[in-house]
Amino acid sequence: MTKMKKIGVVSLGCSKNLVDTEVMLGHLVNQGYQILEDFDRVDCLLVNTCAFLSEAVTESLDQIVELAKLKGEGRADRLVVTGCMVSRYGEELRGEIPEIDGVVHPGNLEGVIEAVTGENPVKQPEHDKFPTRLRSFPYHRAYLKIGEGCSNHCSYCMIPSLRGEFSSRETSSVLEEVRWLLDQDVREITLVSQDTGRYGFDGGAGSLSGLLREVLKVQGDYWLRVLYIHPSRVDEGLLDMIASDERVCRYLDVPFQHVSERILSLMGREDAPVADDVLELARRRLPGVFIRSTLMTGFPGETEKDFGELLQFVKNAGIEHLGVFAYSREEGTLAADFPGQVPSGLAKERMEILLAVQEEVSEERLKVLVGKDLEVMIEGADEKGTYGRHRGQAPEVDGVVYLDRPQVLGDIVAVRITGSSAYDLTGKILDE
Ligand code: SF4
Questions:
Q1: CA distances from 227 to 80, 154, 272 (A)
Q2: For position 126, what pLDDT does the model report?
Q3: What is the CA(220)–ligand 1 centre distance, in A?
Q4: Would you say 335 and 266 are in contact if contact means Cβ atoms under 8 Å apart?
């Protein structure tokens, strides 16, 4: 019997990167590889990197160097680097870290076979099917990528140069993956891409609401969630489609980034509609919707007045889930050369101010839920007890609901909300 080859894997970065890791692992399992969590002795070490911000670059480099050390100690024969670091630095990486044996560009995930084995793979026949994917824990929910890249070219962002222009995945391929995930008892599917609202805009594949219509034809008792919709693509058609079927979570992830017209224009997001108008439309067409957004402080040229507008917005908008980031000057982006760079200390200070205000806003938003009955999907347990998420809480980024007793992971239970804090809720499971 031939010995199974072993591979140790580290996946860094966002949910989209995790899907890429799962697809690469699917290719490797098909080649007879076994995936190990402990790297005591493996044939190959693989790290799928993130390079979106310089902080992520540092984390990726540290990880590569650590794995190179393990290889040096004889714990692995090969080291392969994949993901955005490869897009950003290409072959330069191999020059800097000679232990790297192979690199894989995110646009060519199948290339992982050659990089890992060091041999030319036998060419598989072309087919339209979704790529084989080895799903990672937890198994009751999954991200599903409906496109790759971004065509917005925001002046601060590396994504278009790392991942290329936005390209939609074929609807048939998305549907096939939906069916495959449901066959594996997945209870929640989260549609992701860098710019999900742009689905179909690159020709042929329809629109995001058209895609949702098709997905909802797939029978089953599941939750469907959509992440990352550019404000300019929030329209009545999309909101009505979300409202049309209760399997779609009333949840809108709409990254505003800023509200000052001048800053939005410098950001290359001048086509973004007024944030308050987007919120008003969303709440009117989708009563009870939970909003997630992200904002950026300290963009080059941001004055006290611009920041004041942003602060006022956070105070009044009543957004349920808000991420705030301090601008990070990324080499190779347009904004890196803009005049009026804001000192990073000031950018962080402004970020902290917004986060403190948001804590109060979040607390107020959560209080309103006390006494309500909500469906909760069980996510896990920690020292505070078993917890889950209601439809208005996305996996990994939003708060959770702590429950009064243990439940099976992935189950959906009816819960009466009994208490709230700044970000989390508590609830009592209702007996049938
Ligand atoms: S829309 Fe998002 S991913 Fe695309 S360029 Fe702008 S910030 Fe980057």
A1: 30, 18, 17
A2: 47
A3: 33
A4: yes
CATH 3.80.30.20 for domain 141-367:
yes
Q: Is the CB of 157 under 6 A from ligand 1?
A: yes
Quickly list DSSP for 367-395.
Answer: HTTTT-EEEEEEEEEETTEEEEE-TTS-T
The beta-strand segments (E) located in 1-56 are: 5-11, 33-36, 42-49
- CATH code of domain 5-117: 3.40.50.12160
Residue 104, strand partner residues = 82
CB distance 169 to ligand 1 below 6 Å: no
Q: Work out the number of other CB atoms within 10 angstroms of the CB of residue 54.
A: 13
Closest atom of ligand 1 to 157 CA is 8
Amino acid identity at 428: K
Query: What are 330's two structure tokens?
Result: 């990324």
pTM of the model: 0.91
With a pLDDT cut of 70, the percent of the chain lying above it is 96
**Total H helices, total E strands in the chain:** 13, 18
Mean pLDDT value of segment 141-150: 95
pLDDT score, position 130: 58
CA atoms within 13 A on the CB side of 284: 10
Render 107-174 in DSSP notation, one character per residue: T-GGGHHHHHHSSPPPPPPP--SPPP--PPSPTTEEEEE-EE--S---TT--HHHHH-S-EEPPHHHH
What CATH superfamily classification does 373-429 receive? Nucleic acid-binding proteins (2.40.50.140)
Yes or no: say if 22 and 53 are a contact pair by the CB < 8 Å rule.
no
Domain ranges of the chain: 5-117, 141-367, 373-429
What's the mean pLDDT in 13-32? 91
